[in-house]
Design brief:
mainly alpha; 178 residues
Length: 178
């Protein structure tokens, strides 16, 4: 009897978690009206940027295409001008830059979220790691809807073997100690 109750509780919790994930994907993100033209204009949108990143990471690439493009533009403009983030786009790190340029936005998102949350107190390799984790998570979640990329597959394999952060620390030593 106790086993049946436990199984029922687990099934309910899984259903709730699945429903919550579905709700995020089905809700649209509305880009706030903004006039971001310089670094000073960015700070008021830090919370909106975090919501934007969360939504982009959790919405399927085949729905809300117009809204996704607007959200991606918002994130790109904000992250380019903000003093709260300084993203490194080295081809050694972002190895999929040419093969899957559409995945770069998830790297920017992961890096940006980590920068805001830690107030830029970590090494650049830690932010790159967060960015690559975002790319890998999105790629794995929507693997049937995004094109195959051998470079991202290599990152996933390196992460699975526990070597991604170590490799990033080696590759980014010049950025970490500037």
């Amino acid at each position: 009897m106790k086993k049946n109750i436990l199984l029922l509780a687990v099934a309910i919790m899984m259903g709730i978690a699945s429903a919550e994930a579905q709700v995020v994907a089905e809700q649209r993100f509305v880009v706030p009206q903004h006039n971001i033209t310089n670094a000073a204009n960015c700070k008021p949108y830090n919370h909106a940027i975090l919501e934007c990143i969360h939504w982009l990471e959790n919405v399927s690439p085949n729905i809300y295409k117009g809204e996704q493009e607007e959200a991606k533009k918002f994130l790109t403009v904000w992250s380019t001008l903000s003093e709260d983030v300084s993203i490194v786009m080295d081809e050694k790190i972002v190895s999929f830059m040419n093969s899957s340029p559409d995945m770069i936005i998830y790297y920017i998102g992961g890096w940006t979220r980590k920068s805001i949350q830690t107030k830029n107190k970590l090494f650049k390799s830690d932010y790159a790691y967060a960015g690559l984790q975002s790319v890998m998570n999105y790629y794995k979640r929507y693997n049937k809807l995004v094109k195959y990329d051998a470079n991202i597959e290599k990152l996933i394999e390196l992460e699975k073997n526990g070597g991604l952060l170590i490799q990033l620390q080696k590759d980014m030593i010049n950025y970490d100690f500037k």
